[in-house]
Amino acid sequence: MMILDDEQATLDVGRKLGALLRAGDKIALRGTLGAGKTTLARGILEGLGFGEEVPSPTFAIVQPYEPPETRIPVAHVDLYRIEDAEEIPELGLEDALIDGAMIVEWPDRMPDSFWTDALNIELEITGEGNRQLTWTAGDAWKDRWPLT
């Protein structure tokens, strides 16, 4: 567990995580609206070298980022608006993992089995107004997470 005192702390964790990201990685971001999922994703993209504004992919659903703007290709995905799991294969998410990584908000729209080797992060707003970050990490993250 980590306590993130403010937005800057969330971005900092994301930047460190982005520096560790490699092709084939999946990061599942869970939490209520306003818990900091998109902020953490912004930090991850900054850690991959992206220097511009990172919009929430709520309406686009999949926002791709490619070199040279990022170190590796990455898809920032927001499944909030997906109501039927049968819509997900049309998004081509498996293809994103061939040479890139994936950051997914609202991953519960996909089968749990998809996330077994992922870094699963839960963000929760605490009574003090900060964020509590908890996680489970699949084997692919064994020597990279938690951050040291």
Kindly describe this structure.
It is a single chain. The chain has 148 residues and is α/β, with parallel strands linked by helices. It has helices spanning 7-20, 37-47, 93-99; strands at 2-4, 26-30, 62-65, 74-78, 101-105, 119-125, 131-137. Strand 3 and strand 4 form a beta hairpin. The longest helix has 14 residues, at 7-20. The mean pLDDT is 92.
Question: Outline of this structure?
Answer:
It contains 3 helices and 7 strands; from the N terminus they run E-H-E-H-E-E-H-E-E-E.
pLDDT < 50 stretches = none
Span from first to last CA?
13 Å
Class by alpha and beta content: alpha/beta
Spatial strand arrangement across the major sheet: 1-7-6-2-5-4-3
> Can you summarize the main beta sheet?
7 strands, mixed
Characteristic key phrases:
148 residues; 24% strand
List the SSEs and their pairings.
Layout: E1 2-4, H1 7-20, E2 26-30, H2 37-47, E3 62-65, E4 74-78, H3 93-99, E5 101-105, E6 119-125, E7 131-137
Parallel strand pairs: 2-5, 2-6, 4-5
Antiparallel strand pairs: 1-7, 3-4, 6-7
